[in-house]
Specification:
This protein has 252 residues and is of the alpha/beta class. Helix content is 47%, strand content 15%. It binds nicotinamide-adenine-dinucleotide. Nicotinamide-adenine-dinucleotide binds next to helix 1, helix 4 and helix 7.
Length: 252
């Protein structure tokens, strides 16, 4: 198993991609800290059903004390933190609009959760990672940032910031043997994506698939191989990179 002995913290783990990352890493032997604003009981049940182990932790990634408490809980339960996946984000419920009509309060909240939350959660686990000899931070960005998705400039800006933060953090943390990478999925068939596109879901699915050289929509399981690879020692000299998992929509 590729992740035996590692402890992985996943934010936004209550459903969707976060849950899929938890299940995949648990199957590879990682001990999981499933963290979310919402209850992660179903995520933990799915992990245990497959013979894995994990704990659920309540967190608001936009709140520094809450992030510190998440890291402390991980240390209390498992004694180390090797992997952090910054997956929590405002995505599903966002109201799209032309850039001059976007809601200002939504803009601020997106920055607090998607950008500041990535910083705060990372900051909380860096000391445990240092004391454990290193680690892997995986920031979830999006094809939207690279492509420049229209009618969602707040989301696009937040995910572009995550790519910049990945590069800056990788430079700062390399000396501590902490790697920092970003993963940029195309639209993945989650309940969040269905909510995001609303009544345009079927049309969006077709357009997105037709822009991929491998022309089918992504399922959560299409992401998990990249996540396990970046969490594992197989990627031990890979850092600062943005990994497109998009069926070949965009070539960096
Ligand atoms: N699904 C896609 O097509 C897709 C594509 C590209 C990138 N992404 C990114 O992947 C991630 C997950 O996508 P998803 O479809 O599972 O999204 P989702 O909206 O279904 O899940 C996001 C999770 O984050 C949690 N969350 C939100 N705010 C939080 C906060 N302040 N603190 C803690 N948890 C919080 C939510 O409760 C939810 O469980 C997001 O970062 C999203 O931007 C998704």
């Amino acid at each position: 198993m590729q992740l035996s002995g590692k402890v992985a913290v996943v934010t936004g783990a209550a459903r969707g991609l976060g849950r899929a990352y938890c299940e995949a890493m648990a199957q590879e032997g990682a001990l999981i800290v499933a963290a979310d604003l919402n209850a992660c009981d179903e995520t933990i049940a799915a992990i245990e059903h497959k013979g894995g182990r994990g704990i659920a932790v309540a967190v608001d990634v936009a709140d520094s004390e809450s992030c510190e408490a998440m890291a402390a809980r991980a240390m209390e339960a498992f004694g180390r933190v090797d992997v952090l996946i910054n997956n929590a984000a405002l995505y599903a419920g966002l109201k799209g609009a032309r850039f001059e009509q976007l809601d200002e309060a939504q803009w601020d909240r997106v920055m607090q959760v998607n950008v500041k939350g990535t910083w705060l959660a990372s900051r909380a686990v860096v000391e445990p990672m240092r004391s454990g000899g290193g680690g892997s931070i995986i920031n979830i960005t999006s094809l939207a940032a690279v492509f420049g998705l229209p009618y969602g400039l707040d989301y696009v800006a937040s995910k572009a910031a995550v790519i910049g933060m990945t590069r800056g953090m990788a430079r700062e943390l390399g000396a501590d043997q902490i790697r920092v990478n970003a993963v940029a999925p195309s639209a993945v068939m989650t309940e969040g994506t269905e909510e995001f596109f609303g009544e345009k879901f079927e049309r969006a699915k077709a357009v997105i698939a037709s822009n991929q050289v491998i022309s089918r929509n992504l399922e959560p399981e299409d992401l998990t191989g990249t996540i396990v690879y970046l969490a594992s020692d197989a990627s031990r000299l890979v850092t600062g990179q943005t990994h497109m998992v998009d069926g070949g929509s965009w070539f960096l």
